Amino acid sequence: MLTKFETKSNRVKGLSFHSKRPWILASLHSGVIQLWDYRMGTLIDRFDEHDGPVRGVHFHKSQPLFVSGGDDYKIKVWNYKLHRCLFTLLGHLDYIRTVQFHHEYPWIVSASDDQTIRIWNWQSRTCISVLTGHNHYVMCASFHPKEDLVVSASLDQTVRVWDIGSLRKKTVSPTDDILRLSQMNTDLFGGVEAVVKYVLEGHDRGVNWASFHPTLPLIVSGADDRQVKLWRMNDTKAWEVDTLRGHMNNVSCVLFHAKQDIIVSNSEDKSIRVWDATKRTGVQTFRREHDRFWILASHPEMNLLAAGHDSGMIVFKLERERPAFSVSGDSIFYAKDRFLRFYEFSTQRETQVIPIRRPGSTSLNQGPRTLSYSPTENAVLICSDVDGGSYELYVVPKDSIGRGDTVQEAKRGMGGSAVFVARNRFSVLDKSSNQVLVKNLKNEVVKKSSLPITADAIFYAGTGNLLCRAEDRVVIFDLQQRIVLGDLQTPFVKYIVWSNDMESVALLSKHAIVIASKTLVHQCTVHETIRVKSGAWDDNGVFIYTTLNHIKYCLPNGDSGIIRTLEVPIYVTKVSGNKIFCLDRDGKNKVIVIDATEYIFKLSLMKKKYDNVMSMIRNSQLCGQAMIAYLQQKGFPEVALHFVKDERTRFNLALESGNIEIAVASAKVIDEKDHWYRLGVEALRQGNAGIVEYAYQKTKNFERLSFLYLVTGNMEKLSKMLKIAEVKNDVMGQFHNALYLGDVRERVKILENAGHWPLAYITASVHGLQDIAERLATELGDNVPTLPEGKVPPSLLMPPAPIVCGGDWPLLRVMRGIFEGGLDNIGRGAPDEDEEAADADWGEELDMVDVDGLQNGDIGAVLEDGEVPIENDEEGGWDLEDLELPPEADTPKASSVNSRSSVFVAPTPGMPVSQIWAQRSSLAAEHAAAGNFDTAMRLLSRQLGIRNFSPLRSMFLDLHTGSHTYLRAFSSVPVLSLAVERGWSESASPNVRGPPALVFNFSQLEERLKAAYKATTAGKFTEALRLFLSILHTIPLIVVESRREVDEVKELVIIVKEYVLGLQMELKRKEVKDDPIRQQELAAYFTHCNLQTPHLRLALQNAMTVCYKAKNLSTAANFARRLLETNPPNENQAKTARQVLQSAEKNMKDVSQLNYDFRNPFVVCGATYVPIYRGQKDVSCPYCSSRFVPSQEGQLCTVCDLAVVGADASGLLCSPSQIR
């Protein structure tokens, strides 16, 4: 059973499939009717009007209606589009068991516990017939799919077949008055509208269900006697054909399968049973643990069944419908109806090749599951689930293609997964031993290979390679070298599709598609809510795939979209140009022609094939909001501009792409304040003063206009603004303009006129206008304000002299954009229509009195050649890098204001150096220097298992700041950062970026090591430990050049690790003063660290002294002996050792027992400081390789304080030479 959908709910008593949509109705014992989308797995609606259980429910074949019947004696007809009940049919006097629409007439048949069957007309909303005759509850009643018959089953142990022919004639044929009169009589006195044709007796208990065969004169029934009976009928009689025994409890429901020759029944014994209708034997049984089954429904068109049970329902298929096929070049081999068939794509011809054996066993799902083809040997491998998974090997004779009559004996073998891996070799997966057996065409094992993961299926992955699938990952395994070539975590993969060049692979799961390279490097993942069915690569490297209801595409960057909708699921076999070749569920080859414009357009954009993009814009009907949104999202607003007619959208896109010309044109058409304001903001960002001015004039935004003139240093226009403010009687505006102009007399005059005499007096006095100050003083009389006596000479508030006067900001000289020019005339319809005459100026009157012949017409020419919008928001500041600008004088000025040729687009920002560094390198130090701390941390985590990054934080920051230098150009621009490269020279090419300069190098570590040795010798253990740890923390961020140096770095890790461990133990020993045994043990372990000889001597002397004082003479003697073996040059050391030996020889005893056996080789655990003797289990740190007891796995390493003990890691990467 292939379960497609499952729900958890109250007991399900009624089920009905929609004939067209992927919907199913479930009526529950709780009185609720649920409408589910079984394809999406979502609850669409619930209908809750019945009181008590709803036992029957049925969709109408063509109208948006369904009918339900419940224990409240009511039949309700619902419209699912209106989400409500349309009307209720009343008449039954007890529970209603089943309801069903007639496939043709406006009738509903209902069966009830009141022992009657009623037929209703749902258009006139009346009962048109009552069928009486059963003498117990009627459990079900249904119409025949073709003829005028009704079958019913009752607890009176009978199945009845009723003839409703006369009812049809009466209802459907037109009647004249006389007939109508006789009809009234029959209505009054009971007519013969429906008669019992047969009564089928044979069950020993009440019958729960009976149903017709869709085409043959057969009936199947199920009863409380646990039997399923098959009946046959002809025109005159009906008789029992056979009984199917097997259920252990009451049979609840039984029906014929619409597509296959089988009967499906379910029962209160918690099982669904499938029976062969011709052999009349049981084929298969599906059981549930705790739930009794109550109802079955079959889809009217598709191979789907549904069953309702105590805690929900399941929608399922009995057999998989995907044909097994294998594409080879221009042809495809596939299995269909016991034959191997061959289809040629170019000629679209189909031929039968050889018959393939049908399995002898009776169970379901035994057809071919996969097919593998070897073109050189013309051999075919067919895998199926027969006998728990087996394969058959057929070698097709060359001449038999097209004849299809030669029966040949196949070579068989066990193994659910078998594929060709070379011309005449195929691999078979043996799941029991997790091995792959490589066999030749004689079916003999040539070689065995154990697999690196527990695989449950294998697929072809190029000659000699296998792709092995586990539950949550796939690996590519090389059978020759027996190595793993690629490994990728994925959802459970069902199918794989290789691209034509075998460079990419698509891994298809139930709800996702993962695209990866041939070594399983992940490229993108697409998630689908509806199940993915199949896929194939087209010639451009786009993956075309199908879900249950769509054909879709997936671009290499992960963008996906719908190509077209499907009526029924198909299996794509090949994509060629705009043709999709596919197999349907009946195994027929089809060709679907698609419109590939959309994805080819997106692909061209992605691959920067702009000439294709241009021609597609010109010639195709690509448009729509989705495409515009896509272009905006991908950063191509200037392309989107050419699709759009709507001025508001054009305006937004023009602003986004920095195309001021089009923005101005659209703003004129829209002519709204908000749009002018936004145009002004963008023009200001681009430094296009003329347009800013025009926009501010349009919105009468005088304050901004004044400020613009101040910024651009246009004093002449500022003085005009002053006059305008005067005319408008705007005192504040006047004062501002006077302040901007630095016109003190004007300011004093304004203050005086406004009545602020004290302020006017102060302003005049401070600026040294004595004559005015005196005049004002006399006016003020006694109220003259006193000026403070300032010690520091005051500075006057005067505006700075403008550096650049008028005109636009100096801009980059840029080449024309890729889409400019060629696209200019598209999208507007007319050929090159200028918005205004070329010599027009921007000035429009400001609707006010003309003062002193002041004219606004002379404000600003616009966007001149070489002065171009600049797109540098995200870069910060003008990023003037690598551009050789011509001298200003040589730049030609265009007289035309907005002639087409003067449109330029900003240069696309280059790739920041830091990004180049990060892309080119796998070395963590270089990522940190580039400022990509997260990728640096990821690399360290992957390479060395590092999890604790706090000790590395300051070093990351040092690396980043050290790889850049900073320049101040001049005060008004931000500081420029410049990358410092390693190994830079005068002769280096300016366009080639070297790796970043790093502040840490290997020689520094050697210096630090010497200092640490010195501190150790002097007994400054804390200082020494700090130095050794700093070396350990710096090594992951070191980069060296040669392989030899790499070995030195790795050696240094080992040296330093030994010292860190030893010193940590020694410091610990000093803490445990009150535990003499532990003190001795730690001193003893210190002597087993790999130290320099002078330090070893000190450690041995120390251990000897500690043990001797504690009366452990035997152990002390051992240390003395080892000390003497080092030939100490210090006579005192040697003398003491000899004395200890002499005194120990008299009494070779240890007072206390230590956890220390010097005869048995051991390493010391870095966390618990206990010996791990040879042969005992241990785990190690992936970075510093310190060893630990197994309980420390997953903890932070106490020696290096960076990595996690026992973590997986690829190893230290500190040189480009390791990568090459």
Give the amount of beta strand, in percent.
25-35%
Mean pLDDT: 83
Oligomer state equals single chain
DSSP strand count: 61
The percent range for helix content is: 25-40%
Shape, principal axes of CA atoms:
extended
Major sheet: arrangement of strands: 1-28-27-26
Task: Please outline the major beta sheet.
Answer: 4 strands, antiparallel
N- and C-termini, Cα separation: 52 Å
The number of helical runs is 27
Q: Give start-end ranges of low-pLDDT stretches.
A: 824-901
Tell me the radius of gyration: 45 Å
Structural class: alpha+beta
Account of the protein in words:
- With 1220 residues, the chain is of the alpha+beta class.
- The chain is built from 27 helices and 61 strands.
- The strands form 17 sheets. The chain has a 4-stranded antiparallel sheet, with no helix packed on it. A 4-stranded antiparallel sheet has the order 2-3-4-5, with no helix packed on it. It has a 4-stranded antiparallel sheet with strand order 6-7-8-9, with no helix packed on it.
- β12 and β13 form a beta hairpin.
- It is extended.
- The two termini are 52 Å apart.
- Mean pLDDT is 83; it is low at 824-901.
